[in-house]
Amino acid sequence: MHTNKFILIANKGKKKGTTTTVDALDGIKKRDYTIVRVEFGSDGRAMYASLVPCGVGGMYEPVFPLKASDVMAADYVSHWAAMAELLGVPQEKVISANAIAGAMREWKGRKIPD
After folding, report:
1. Residue 88 and residue 49: Cα distance in Å, rounded?
2. CA distances from 43 to 3, 36, 92, 96, 110 (A)
3. Low-confidence residues in the chain, pLDDT < 70
4. Domain residues of the chain, as ranges?
5. Do the beta carbons of residue 35 and residue 20 sit within 8 Å?
6. How far, in Å, CA of 86 to CA of 47, rounded?
7. pTM of the predicted model, to two decimals?
8. What is the widest separation between alpha-carbon atoms in the chain?
């Protein structure tokens, strides 16, 4: 079973820059914190961390992280880069995406995601 913990980094007042770890975000004024979500695997080891975005009106922008160990990730990133280039995304971003896709292809231990 996977579990989540949240690291709250205060953005305001006397506590600015201090951190707190919580199990849930119930009752938290999200705009007062930068929030990092850490997902732990069933073995208790951290699998990945992601920033919890708080946009306009406290809405969360959905994100979909890809890991190099995912056999499909490199192709997804390459496809994104090709589409981005067609749409006129700045060349530096396209080059960066293609470099990431290349590094993903070189990753040892690629597998079907679980």
Report:
1. 30
2. 10, 20, 39, 33, 20
3. 1, 53-62
4. 3-58, 73-106
5. no
6. 34
7. 0.54
8. 48
